[in-house]
Amino acid sequence: MTVPNENRVHRVVTLVRPGLLPMELGIVHRLFGTAVDTGGRPLYSVVTCAPEPGELTTDADFTVNIAQGPRALEQADTVLVPAAQEDYESQERGRLAEPVRRALARIPPGARVASICTGSFVLAAAGLLTGRRATTHWKSCDELRTLYPEVDVDPDVLYTDDRGVLTSAGVAAGIDLCLHMIRSDHGAEVANTVARRTVVPPHREGGQAQYIERPVPEPGASPTAAARAYALRHLGEPLTLEDLAREAATSVRTLSRRFLQETGATPMRWLAEQRLQHARRLLELTDDPVDRIAAEAGFGTGTAMRQHFRGVLGVSPRAYRDTFRGTR
Predict the structure, then answer these.
(1) Distance of alpha carbon 84 from the chain centroid
(2) Phi/psi class of residue 264: alpha, beta or left (left: φ > 0; alpha: ψ in -120 to 50)?
(3) How far apart are CA 77 and CA 214, in angstroms?
(4) Is 276 in contact with 293 (CB distance < 8 Å)?
(5) What CA–CA distances, in Å, run from 91 to 46, 88, 124, 160, 184?
(6) Which of 45, 33, 61, 40 is nearest to 5 (CA)?
(7) pLDDT in tens for each of the 328 residues of the chain?
(8) How far apart are the first and last CA of the chain?
(9) Distances (CA, A) of 311 to 108, 307, 308
(10) How far apart are alpha carbons 232 and 209 in whole angstroms?
């Protein structure tokens, strides 16, 4: 878990290349740029740089002028590498333009490094993914695995976080990745506020499957909406698949299939994630004892909640509270 430097604002630097995807660059500025503390003070400074500053092409019909060069990376706490058009061409193992290689060498030891979409090929070519779990866009996962067998490529997740090096799948998963980093730094409430301001879902667990050629439900016509709303109103109660299927007026089998289509998760996995998020919020915002929070969030007992926290987050509820109550 990355702990921001308390003496200055956490510095996020995005390294872009010719042929950049403007949406991926915008994600970083929009999400990190709107994260503030309770006093309205920015929690991050966001800087964009290029290996060679100046006018850069994009995958659209306009260019972007990048004023800062690679020296900006020398003071980075977090570095993000978005995709570029060159990533969609035939790849060669270890291929990195020399200016990009020199720029990456400026990243200080201990800085968190992340990629969006096929930016993972840059991290792999630089050796940053060796021995680590990683992902990329589902169309490129086989190529990444073939070129870099030393990387543990997981094609079935939205993002990965392995010892300070993070990767994400497609563009939308880049949003999930940035929110995950904000949540890791400052807790669920800050990340949820950023998500609300951006009008995106506050959290999709990294282990959810990538959305591969799945239809998007029509607005207001979500088959699982009633079941999900019921579950959120009754998180503290024992809930079964049968309970959720009854609320959705469908069979358990149909409900499970529709949940997977809409959320990328099974109903019970989705429910466990909602309980975890509710418990995190209560730990951050209240002084309630762990046992009470466990009951309210639906874990039943403090012991069960502790086991879940350690299994998913790697920390106890008390350690989680101690970490984030100081950032309120």
Answers:
(1) 20
(2) left
(3) 36
(4) no
(5) 30, 8, 12, 22, 33
(6) 45
(7) 444 445 579 999 999 999 999 989 999 999 999 999 888 899 999 999 999 999 999 999 999 999 999 999 999 999 999 999 988 888 888 889 999 999 999 999 999 999 999 999 999 999 999 999 999 998 899 999 999 999 999 887 888 999 899 999 888 888 889 998 998 898 888 888 888 777 665 555 544 444 433 333 444 457 788 898 899 999 999 999 999 999 989 999 999 988 887 777 789 988 998 898 899 889 888 999 999 999 999 999 999 999 988 888 778 898 888 877 654 4
(8) 18
(9) 31, 6, 5
(10) 22
Assigned token pair, 319:
């350690």
C-beta contacts of 158-163 below 8 A and 24+ residues apart: 158/204, 158/205, 158/206, 158/207, 158/208, 158/209, 158/210, 158/264, 159/135, 159/206, 160/132, 160/133, 160/134, 160/135, 160/206, 161/206, 162/132, 162/133, 162/134, 163/132
SS3 232: helix
Spell out the alpha helix ranges (H) of 19-74. 22-33
Say how far apart CA 278 and CA 309 lie, in whole Å: 12
Residues forming beta bridges with residue 113, ordered by sequence position: 79, 165
Contact assessment for residue 86 and residue 17, using Cβ atoms and an 8 Å cutoff: yes
Instruction: Extract the tokens encoding 280.
Output: 């995190």
What is the torsional sign of CA 181, 185, 187, 189? Answer: negative
Q: 35 in helix, strand or coil?
A: coil
The distance of Cα 139 from the centroid of its chain, to the nearest Å, equals 19
- The residue length of the chain stands at 328
Full DSSP string of 253-314: HHHHHHHHHHHSS-HHHHHHHHHHHHHHHHHHH----HHHHHHHHT--SHHHHHHHHHHHTS
